[in-house]
TrEMBL record:
Its EC number is 3.1.3.96. Keywords: Hydrolase, Magnesium, Metal-binding. Belongs to the HAD-like hydrolase superfamily. CbbY/CbbZ/Gph/YieH family. Its cofactor is Mg(2+). This is pseudouridine 5'-phosphatase. It is an enzyme of class 3 (hydrolase). It comes from Loxostege sticticalis.
């Protein structure tokens, strides 16, 4: 496949920059276990990238949990307040973000998380996230009216760049199927770094699929190559 040169880069956060998808699984399973239910990888794949109230409703419906969305979010909030500060940066991410920053490539964050949960997740990684000056929190931003797989979050995130780039000049990094569909729907190229358990036949919508951000070659998209 040939790739088109880009000038701007947007990053998803959960499962892409941070290992928080693992922490979500732990938290959701803790609630599900109270009712003898299993939070499966298949269900996880369906809800990844969705806004908080949407994924809560889908988990409740799928697992037939006897609780409301607000009750689910309240219970998981207490769990995640303990888990999220333990988040870790995924391999290759710090190097790439620092590289793009050092080469004056405009970079931004486009996460479905709320500002509240974002603050918990990045408490020990503030220096890295300070390199992403343009941030969009999908569950908190009133302009993001629909969650992934709708393109809203990426269109809103791109509009925050002062240069107001065309969508085809933006490259998105994602780990979820919903995120890939959202980026493609926004008219952007997308590098997917999926969970290793995901059937690769389901990743056809992505522009490029990698096992790790460590494997990314910036020059494929007209970005400055790594010097080391």
């Amino acid at each position: 496949m040939t790739y088109k040169p880009v000038t701007h880069v947007l990053f998803d956060m959960d499962g892409l920059i941070l290992n928080t998808e693992e922490l979500y699984t732990i938290g959701f399973q803790e609630v599900a276990s109270r009712y003898g239910k299993q939070f499966t990888f298949d269900l996880k794949t369906k809800i990844m990238g969705q806004q908080s109230r949407e994924f809560a409703g889908n988990i409740i419906d799928e697992l037939e949990l006897p609780m409301t969305v607000d009750e689910f979010l309240s219970e998981t909030k207490m769990i995640f307040e303990k888990l999220f500060p333990e988040s870790k940066i995924m391999p290759g991410v710090k190097r790439l973000i620092q590289h793009l920053h050092d080469n004056n490539i405009p970079i931004g964050l486009a996460t479905s998380s709320s500002k509240e949960t974002y603050d918990l997740k990045v408490v020990n990684h503030q220096e890295l996230f300070d390199l992403l000056p343009y941030k969009t929190w999908g569950s908190s931003d009133p302009l993001v009216t629909r969650g992934k797989p709708y393109p809203d979050i990426f269109l809103v995130a791109a509009s925050k760049f002062p240069e107001n780039p065309e969508p085809d000049k933006c490259l998105v990094f994602e780990d979820s199927l919903n995120g890939v569909r959202a980026a493609r729907g926004a008219g952007m190229q997308v590098v997917m770094v999926p969970d290793m358990r995901l059937d690769r036949s389901r990743t056809a919508d992505a522009t490029l699929v990698l096992d790790s951000v460590e494997d990314f070659q910036p020059e494929l998209f007209g970005l400055p190559p790594f010097s080391d």
